[in-house]
UniProtKB/TrEMBL annotation:
<comment type="similarity">
    <text>Belongs to the bacterial solute-binding protein 2 family.</text>
</comment>
<dbReference type="InterPro" id="IPR006311">
    <property type="entry name" value="TAT_signal"/>
</dbReference>
<feature type="region of interest" description="Disordered">
    <location>
        <begin position="28"/>
        <end position="50"/>
    </location>
</feature>
<feature type="compositionally biased region" description="Basic and acidic residues">
    <location>
        <begin position="34"/>
        <end position="50"/>
    </location>
</feature>
<dbReference type="InterPro" id="IPR025997">
    <property type="entry name" value="SBP_2_dom"/>
</dbReference>
<dbReference type="InterPro" id="IPR028082">
    <property type="entry name" value="Peripla_BP_I"/>
</dbReference>
<feature type="domain" description="Periplasmic binding protein">
    <location>
        <begin position="55"/>
        <end position="312"/>
    </location>
</feature>
<dbReference type="GO" id="GO:0030246">
    <property type="term" value="F:carbohydrate binding"/>
</dbReference>
<dbReference type="Pfam" id="PF13407">
    <property type="entry name" value="Peripla_BP_4"/>
</dbReference>
<feature type="signal peptide">
    <location>
        <begin position="1"/>
        <end position="19"/>
    </location>
</feature>
<dbReference type="GO" id="GO:0030313">
    <property type="term" value="C:cell envelope"/>
</dbReference>
<protein>
    <submittedName>
        <fullName>Substrate-binding domain-containing protein</fullName>
    </submittedName>
</protein>
<keyword id="KW-0732">Signal</keyword>
Amino acid sequence: MTKLTSRRGLLFGAAAVSAGAVLTGCTSNDPDDGGDKAADTQPAADDKPGKQVTIGYAGPQADHGWLNAVNDQAQNRAKKYSDVSLEVTEGSNDTAQQIGQIETLINKKVDVLVILPADGKALTQIGLKAMRAGIPVVNLDRIFNSPQAYRCWVGGDNYGMGLNAAHYIGEKLKDKPDAKVIELAGIDNLELTQQRTQGFDDGLKNYPNIKKVARQAAEFTVESGQSKMAQLLQAQSSFDALWNHDDDQGVGALRAIEQAGRDDFLMVGGAGALSAFQAIKADSGVLKATVLYPPTMAASAIDLARALGQGKGVSGLAEFEIPSTVTCYSAVVDKENVDQYMSTGFK
């Protein structure tokens, strides 16, 4: 597996408000709050200290800004709770090494495991082993092959990223006859890339005046973004909008755009890098928005793991148990709301 493939197996589409905010903004269990008596009996997760929970956290090597932010989000979230102890493994993109690290956590008998596997398929068996040992697993981002390998999956919406990017561009260009858009995709053999493209294509169907005239796959790197964007610019002398799947490769794409002296189109990015937020806020170039794939999902995974360990549910939901699946919304961040998300931007 290449470094880039291990980086994102099933990338997480972003949330307009992080799932963590939903999970921890909880209803009170205090009957004095005047709430419904039935609701008062609901053991919802909240910020009040409860049963001590030891969470084992295993992620891949932070060889990319997004993954580094994921690790930071998980660790910082755990520090928020006085009743949470976090056992963190040294990140690895080697599946055998990561399996060994998780086995160590199982042997330590942690209460809950949060696992972002380097390869979901390859680590399915260790997820099953943990579940069979009575340790519930929160599967983060790259999904295991079997739902029996996790109690809850938390991840993003790649199709939704493409869909919302298309909607944003479509609304900007809906009154322009014969509008043209191009797409700078990610690694083509990854399912997440295919899902983002499918969402984008389906979204554009709502705007019959818009035609996608070119698509080029890059590799989620600055260098590939620059070289592939330069090729697109050379081949397309005129177009109205660009959707770039990834803000990291977008750094390179913006370099190519600047070198070509082009400013005759709008650009929408993907993921939620700090550099993208800053460019959107400055509003001095072509980048006008980005569609999130938020690293805050890791903070939400800690919230869910804590709730699992304490036998609680999720605020805002009537069920006594946490959901089996949490898919984050792929919010669009533009100049109007960028300040709200600035603190979540990754470097």
